[in-house]
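User: structure tokens for this one?
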Amino acid sequence: MQAFPVANTHAHTNPILGYLHLCGVGITPECTLKIGKGSYFESQNLCINEDGSGWIKADHEITVESVNGKFTGKGIVKF
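Assistant:
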């Protein structure tokens, strides 16, 4: 459930999706991943620190927009 909650359609994922929303995680109109700051979250595939930095594991190219800038890559992308 924590590794990739958006792929899990069960209702028990709602607390984690809600917490990610509070962390400022969302999708921009350009279909990039937006990461905010203020809360801490860590799973096997995503880590967000309180300052908005962190990393994400991605099999395909991903673009992350965080408070630290815009980062594109695949594998482990640090932001």
